[in-house]
Amino acid sequence: MLYYALVFLVIALIAGVLGFGGIAGASAGIAQILFFLFLAFLVISLLVGLFRRA
To answer: On the CB side of 35, how many CA atoms lie within 13 Å of its CA?
Structure first.
């Protein structure tokens, strides 16, 4: 999931440099959503792993 967030971030940067504002904004929004989903899943998996050991 983090890979796709980085891909959309690169697409947003390239589109922004080339002047495609709408595509850049949409790609940056998707990248941000995917990144926060990745962080949420990371925290959940760390907590589950912590509670399984206890």
So the answer is: 11
- Give pLDDT tens digits for 1-54: 789 888 989 999 999 999 998 989 999 999 999 999 999 999 999 999 999 987
> What is the value of pTM for the model shown?
0.78
Annotated domain spans of the chain: 2-53
Query: What phi and psi values does residue 8 have, to the nearest 5 degrees?
Result: -65, -30
The DSSP secondary-structure symbol of 54 reads -
* 20-16-13-8 Cα dihedral, nearest 10 degrees: -30
